[in-house]
Amino acid sequence: MALPNPIIERERKKHTREGFAQYLLASLILGEGPKKWNTPYQMWPCGRKIAADLCAKAFDDPAGAGDGRFYWEFRLEAPGSPGGRWPDLAIRTEDRLILFELKTEAGSIREGQVDEYLELAKAQFPDLHVDMLYLT
Q1: What does pTM read for this prediction?
Q2: CA 10 to chain centroid
Q3: pLDDT by residue (tens digit) across 3-45?
Q4: Which region holds residue 85: left if phi is over 0, alpha if psi is between -120 and 50, else beta?
Q5: What whole-number distance in Å separates Cα of residue 125 and Cα of residue 45?
């Protein structure tokens, strides 16, 4: 595995600043650049450590991310919205779903977005414990 070179990736992919932050965090957790949205990936050892540290800080639960599968742009079904909703990142374990939303731009914050994502996730995955990290 090789982490992408941030300078080359920024030029090549023409990410927004927020999209670039999402891509870089996903790359750090995966150990390589993600290739496809809404695809379950296995986290590399350093990525599992990052996820465990985030869970320890946010939820006082370092085992929260476990050996879950990591998603870059995780699709949530949304009734009345054919495209659904897309939290930036997610980790899904056997009994838990952790959604991540990254914000670098004040203008990208949408009123009610966190509540909407949590409600949709709980409806789509009723047997999972659902949490969300909102990183600004």
Answers
A1: 0.88
A2: 19
A3: 667 666 666 666 678 888 888 899 999 999 999 999 999 999 9
A4: beta
A5: 27
